[in-house]
Amino acid sequence: MKVGFIGLGIMGKPMVKNLLKAGHKVLAYDMFRANVDDVVSAGASGAASIAEVAKECKLIITMLPNGPEVKEVVLGAGGVLESAASGTVVFDMSSIAPGVAQEVCAECAKKGVKMLDAPVSGGEPKAIDGTLSVMVGGDEATFNEVKDVIGSMAASVVHCGDIGAGSTTKLANQIIVALNIAAVSEAFMLSTKAGVSPEKVFDAIKGGLAGSTVMNAKAPMIMDGNFKPGFKIDLHIKDLANALETGHKVGSPLPFTAAVMEILQHLRAHGLGQNDHSAIAKYYEKLTDSEIRK
User: Fold this and answer.
1) 168 and 98 Cβ atoms separated by less than 8 Å
2) Which of 41, 179, 252, 294 is most buried, by the most CB atoms less than 10 A from its CB?
3) What are the distances in angstroms from CA 259 to CA 238, 255, 292?
4) Is 281 left (phi over 0), alpha (psi -120 to 50) or beta?
5) Are 170 and 156 in contact (CB under 8 A)?
6) Across-strand partners of 45?
7) Would the pTM of this model clear 0.90, i.e. be above it?
8) CA 6 – CA 278 distance, rounded (Å)
9) How far apart are CA 103 and CA 124, in angstroms?
10) Is residue 149 within 8 Å of 3, Cβ to Cβ?
């Protein structure tokens, strides 16, 4: 299948390369030509416009920063809907608010274009090795049509419900990840200040009930002082903003999410927005004038 792919950032580029490895033809577009050239060197074809992708591909994957960009790419002037044929599937893998996914899907339906919202979890490392977790909302029959293609980039592809359900699931994921990193940072700072090695604490508890995939991934980074971004603080702020907005709309209280959001906002205000979200630990380090290290 010839797959269109729009959005070649930190996640999109390795995702395209995994599609190519699986034998799919990919026509790729990004507003930055260097990103297109990167995937063309791996075997993709480069498109000069969104319209070119929409005209040539019946499955179009979008991987964009947030809801406004998705609306612009799909609904805007020169966007997907202007050129896509009826029956085209837009598979949006961006992390956006559920309400935006529902709005865009409704507009697509007017032209016979199908849309699924399908954000991912795993960050750049899992985008590179093709083991992302994909959470999908929308028509189940459409999901089944494209599931195998999406599986080329993922270890898990799960249909979660109607349109917007994928985005809601991603928001739940992002809440759990953010709060988990904050809990790890708080607990390891406690051990540091009490004179107990955080490395020893990690080794002692990672196999028990407190153990988690998040702790296994982020605790070593914190203890190494390595905050190179796999998932940036700025992006997590965007996701938690969508979570808080959605919580307000549906009447679901999110007090812990709001507290971690304030930590992230503080870090961004101090120039750390491009750090990995494991840099939540830096908030505790600043408060205590101590570092969590091995």
Assistant:
1) yes
2) 179
3) 15, 6, 21
4) alpha
5) no
6) 27
7) yes
8) 28
9) 28
10) yes
Structure-token pair, residue 80: 């997907």
Where is 240: in which H helix or E strand?
helix 233-250
Pairwise CA distance, residues 191 & 172, whole Å = 29
Query: Between the CA of residue 263 and those of 196, 278, 283, what are the distances in Å?
Result: 25, 12, 7
Q: Is 2 a catalytic residue?
A: no
Write the pLDDT tens digit of every residue in 153-211.
999 999 999 999 999 999 999 999 999 999 999 999 999 999 999 999 999 999 999 99
Pair of tokens at residue 208 = 């028990």
Annotated active-site residue in 170, 218, 232, 282: 170
Query: Which residue's entry shows tokens 């971690």?
Result: 260
DSSP codes of every residue in 140-204: HHHHHHHHHHHGGGEEEEEEEESTTHHHHHHHHHHHHHHHHHHHHHHHHHHHHHTT--HHHHHHH
Look up residue 144 and give its two tokens: 């089944």
- Can you tell me the distance from the alpha carbon of 56 to that of 97, in angstroms, rounded to the nearest whole number? 28
